[in-house]
Amino acid sequence: MDSDLSRESLAVPEAAIDEACGETPLPELGVIEQVWETDPIPTDEIADSAGEAFASLPLDEVPDGGEIAVGAGSRGIANLAEIVGGVVAEAQDRGYEPFVFPAMGSHGGATAEGQREMLAELGVDEETVGCEIRSSMETIEVGRTEDRDVPVVADANAVAADAIVPINRVKPHTDFDGTVESGLSKMLVIGMGKQRGAKTAHDWAVDWSLRNMIPEITERLLDELPVVGGVAILEDQRDDTALLEGVPPSGFLDREAELLERAYDEMPTLPFDDIDVLVLDRQGKDISGQGMDTNVIGRRPFAIQEPEPDLPDIKRIYTRGLTETTHGNAMGMGSADFVHADLLAEIEMPTTLINALTASTTRGVRLPPAVETDRAGMIAALSTIGIVDPETVRLVRAPDTMHLQRLYASPALVGEARERDDLRVVEEPSPIEFDDGEFATPPAHEAVGGE
User: What Gene3D superfamilies does UniProt report for this protein, alphabetically (predicted)?
Assistant: First the structure.
């Protein structure tokens, strides 16, 4: 991937880090695992469960043979193709003509083809889901809010359909707290609003806040458009599909608020509230809207009029790269204290900046200092937290903020894990292995036999 940034000009060599930081001892790392009890929907039942969720919606007013616009987003939702395909198949069995439209705001570089490609990357294309994909950035204004006369817009293809059914995961949002956060309502307001609607919502949120805006615009959309309901998804700590539920229009706010409470209980989090250094192997839009889930890292430095989470307290974050599916979108990299040079080489700055401008969170794409190697990143992070004792420093290395079951941990944290019922020690601490300054060990979820 071509980059707008020069790795060589911006990354600080390991030798320069060593000279500046002096003698900085590195801790050994062991492997620990969080003990989670989950009950996901079996994989071979996902499509049928999605179809049943769709069938539970009030479909009486959809004409025979009517077109149903099925909204799908850009997040890394487990089993997304199977869920969308199950809804499409059930709609077809009932005699309707479903099509899928991208409901993802400005993602995909705010282009129709970019959004189609993002769906395909997530496994959603015409072959896998069995219907047409209609991707367009054209929107239609369908009304205005009563409170502040804000224009309410929606995807033109969806507006022209006989019925609209968004499919989305309900989960805590990265930028704000409210009774309704990420889920069906947000997909209607920001996802279905495309770049224009997303930009309008985030602009007004500077003074109004998303917690107040999303419910009001949702109600306006439900009044003006043939939204027959949505399919809500809940995922467990392992990011497996735990619940598929058809939510009628009357439940978009109340039922979604109830599902959000459960989502908070089941979201994966770091098992420690006090961490000196967090190393993340990757970040990306498929991991979180802000690349790194702000609820997991306890940082929200770029949110609009929103307080940061109280916990966890993490002194330094070092991020090593981007996911392939994020397509160079490095939104949220500003939350890191240091990044690897590889991350700079992977950034597509136009895509990243368009996302930041749309969301009015430009501080989230500020460039952190870049280091040449993993060892340099570790030294830089550890040397700036005070006196470092390898036996007491609290360091965690995780694949990303979504995959948190298996983690590398320093001896102090491994010792704590031995005393806790919700953690188990998988591998005892040993010296960190480097190959030309880079970690020689795989991500934690691939280590010692994998999760």
Answer: 3.40.50.11440
